[in-house]
From TrEMBL:
Protein name per Swiss-Prot or TrEMBL: Nitrite reductase
CDD domains found in the cross-reference section: MopB_CT_Fdh-Nap-like
One Pfam family hit: Molydop_binding
GO terms for biological process, alphabetical: respiratory electron transport chain
Organism this protein belongs to: Streptomyces aquilus
GO cellular component, one term: membrane
4Fe-4S Mo/W bis-MGD-type domain mapped to chain residues: 3-59
SMART domains registered for this protein in UniProt: Molybdop_Fe4S4 (SM00926)
Lineage, broadest ranks: Bacteria, Bacillati, Actinomycetota, Actinomycetes, Kitasatosporales
Length: 693
């Protein structure tokens, strides 16, 4: 590789900040500012700045490992690949194709996600594939499809945010999860706009708000209904817009009118005057937005909750109009693209539905297979993990660490241990990889080229900047080798651009149409927004803003979805009287598999903690730093107390990045949303206990 700067993107979150990478003489790589990318304009958070540390980490995997006599020992690539092929072949022969499971990740590039889905369905013939993005964005996706006929995280670019009049930010702590994005909200306020933050904690993001609403965890749906009730009662509905661009208003209106503000106050704990203030701030400007993130989405009623916030936008004429709309702030690096190209249990490339005969025919033709031979939809992520060792006997896992990140994690860990065979591709020995029969060391972001799609729907080119160690291979090479060993010699190229060319054809005509996007365009245009059906950039520049003329429904109208409040799957009771909510800290990412291996990040965020209000701490008899046990119906986690008035007195918070006794996901509830199959990470009932230091 050349010793010049390569413009590329961060490996972590959905902002996909631009950065330059320059190889340095000691064999490492240096991150420098890349000001030409409009999302971050050179700014990076600590995770992005230190990302190269994982490339040269002493704990990086550099040899395949196979289990021998109970321990993982180094092996050759041929030995390891043969062992995986044999494990999958044996499972298929003894138990049928659906006994082979595949689990992917929202950090995989579009090319990898596409190839993994094709591998599962064409090579293994299994329906049992899903990925960790199910735990991230599935409720927002389901809500968006119901209302707009299409799911793209943000239907407008981030640069629209400073120009709108008001943003309601629901359940997002972007000051910690994606810090460079905070400037869009700072600029909004500088331009005279207002920011309303909905969060049960006084987060760093809430500190920036003009109005901070602190509902009980699990009541965001009721909160949105209360606001819509007031909008109707105060005569603030945009009747002309509702008549012209929507359908289903009367039912949604009736549902909202059953949620009186005083009733909503009792459910949420948010006083009626604050609800009125929020309505005034949202309705007075000409344009406004609602943005949701994991807070309202990771609930057993996440899809309905998203629907309630979308209803708010539709009733006030704030969707499909300039500088207005509903959007979801996707979390993982390729959280958007990862859900579009086939690693999701119910989808084919181009965001096509797996149970749609026309979609099956189209994709099968691109793949050169019989459409009738393609399996149907499989289980969602938690259901798939819960079936391990039961009717799923072998698992191929890529880009995920469910031992830390799955809900009811101790149970899932036992399920993983009960597998006949587990193969994991990773860059470090994650907690899940440590349980595997075979571990394959794979290339990292800076060592390979590929595309991602950021939270705006902007497809980006991540370029290779350095040469990978000789002893590692790319995920695409792994899938090529396994396909070959399992009897499919063609159709699994190792060159990312070749894969992308096929993805373009497979996505053509689908909701997420990439057919006009090429590597050349991505390089020249600094990213292209999908849908983009035409290669000529003059003929089609991509689609930064969706729905301005019509929504993606048959009749072009958005759909109101009538929704009503319902309790969370677990409400506090005498035995478990406190609510637990979980989330992230700025210095760690997801399960921490990479960021926990970076000294600077570990120094900043060395371990989990239990955040609780002084009143709750006093009742418990805990002081700052005391170990506190948090106990749910699923297990027990222990971490030091962090006492703050910036959280509701009925709620405790734990970040979920760590394994071991402080693993927050030991506690979380896998109660699933009936539509999106999203687990209820964001709220469950717990009790607190003191622990002898
Ligand atoms: Fe990377 Fe996200 Fe940080 Fe940007 S905000 S540097 S994309 S982790």
């Amino acid at each position: 590789m050349q010793n010049t700067a390569t413009p590329t993107h961060c490996p972590y979150c959905a902002l996909q900040c631009g950065m330059n990478l320059t190889p340095v003489p000691d064999g490492g790589v240096e991150v420098t500012e890349r000001a030409d990318f409009p999302v971050n304009r050179g700014a990076l958070c600590g995770k992005g700045r230190t990302a190269p540390a994982v490339l040269s980490s002493s704990v990086r995997l550099t040899s395949p490992l196979v289990r021998s006599g109970g321990t993982l020992v180094p092996a050759t690539w041929d030995e390891a690949l043969d062992r995986i092929a044999e494990g999958l072949r044996r499972t298929r022969a003894e138990h049928g194709p659906d006994a082979c499971g595949v689990f992917g990740g929202g950090g995989l590039t579009n090319e990898k996600a596409y190839t993994l889905g094709k591998f599962a369905r064409v090579v293994l013939g299994t329906s049992q594939i899903d990925y960790n993005g199910r735990f991230c964005m599935s409720s927002a996706a389901a809500g968006g499809i119901k209302a707009f006929g299409l799911d793209r995280g943000l239907p407008f670019p981030l640069e629209d945010i400073p120009k709108t009049g008001c943003v309601i930010l629901v359940g997002s702590n972007l000051a910690e999860t994606m810090p460079p994005s905070l400037r869009f909200f700072t600029e909004l306020k500088e331009n005279g706009g207002t920011l309303i933050v909905v969060d049960p904690r006084r987060t760093k993001t809430a500190d920036q708000a003009d109005l901070h609403l602190m509902p009980r965890p699990g009541t965001d749906l009721a909160l949105a209904l209360g606001l819509l009730h007031l909008i109707v009662a105060e005569g603030r509905v945009d009747e002309a817009y509702v008549a012209e661009r929507t359908a289903g208003w009367e039912d949604a209106r009736a549902a909202a009118m059953a949620h009186w503000p005083e009733y909503v106050e009792r459910i949420t704990g948010v006083p009626v005057p604050r609800l009125r203030e929020a309505v005034r701030m949202f309705c007075e400007p000409e344009a406004a937005m609602v943005l949701t993130a994991r807070g309202p989405e990771q609930q057993s009623k996440g899809t309905d909750t998203v629907g309630a916030w979308i209803n708010l936008c539709l009733a006030t004429g704030r969707a499909g109009r300039p500088l207005s709309g509903y959007g979801c702030l996707t979390g993982q690096g390729n959280g958007q693209g990862g859900r579009e190209h086939g690693q999701k249990a119910d989808q084919l490339p181009g965001y096509r539905k797996l149970d749609d005969p026309a979609a099956r025919r189209h994709v099968a033709e691109v793949w050169g297979v019989d459409p009738d031979a393609l399996p149907g939809p499989g289980r969602s992520a938690y259901e798939l993990l819960d079936a391990l060792g039961q009717d799923i006997k072998s698992l191929l896992l890529m880009g995920s660490n469910p031992v830390v990140s799955a809900p009811r994690a101790a149970h899932i860990e036992e399920r993983i241990k009960s597998l006949d065979f587990l193969a994991v591709c990773d860059v470090v020995l994650s907690e899940t990889a440590a349980l595997a029969d075979v571990v394959l060391p794979v290339t990292q972001w800076a060592e390979e080229t590929g595309t991602t799609t950021n939270l705006e729907g902007r497809v980006l080119l991540r370029r290779q900047a350095i040469t990978p160690p000789e002893s590692v291979r790319s995920d695409l090479e792994v899938l090529h080798e396994l396909a070959d060993r399992l009897g499919v010699e063609k159709g699994f190229p190792t060159d990312p651009e070749e894969v992308f060319e096929e993805l373009r054809r497979a996505s053509a005509g689908g909701p997420a149409d990439y057919s006009g996007i090429t590597y050349r365009r991505l390089a020249e245009e600094n990213g292209v927004f999908w849908p983009c059906p035409t290669q000529d950039s003059d003929a089609h520049p991509g689609t930064p803003r969706l729905f301005l003329d019509r929504f993606a429904t048959d009749d072009g109208r958005a759909r109101f979805v009538p929704v009503s409040h319902r309790p969370s799957a677990e409400e506090p009771d005498d035995e478990y009287p406190v609510l637990l909510t979980t989330g992230r800290v700025v210095a760690q990412y997801q399960s921490g598999a990479q960021t926990r291996r970076v000294d600077e990040l570990n120094a900043a965020a060395p371990g989990p903690f239990v955040e609780l209000h002084p009143r709750l701490a006093a009742r418990l008899g805990a002081a700052e730093g005391d170990p506190v046990a948090v106990v749910s119906r699923r297990g027990r986690a222990v971490a030091p107390a962090r006492i703050t008035t910036g959280i509701r007195p009925d709620t405790v918070f734990m970040p979920f990045h760590w394994p071991g006794e402080g693993r927050a996901n030991t506690l979380t509830n896998p109660a699933l949303d009936p539509t999106s199959r999203m687990p209820e990470f964001k709220t469950c009932a717990v009790r607190l206990e003191t622990v002898e230091p």
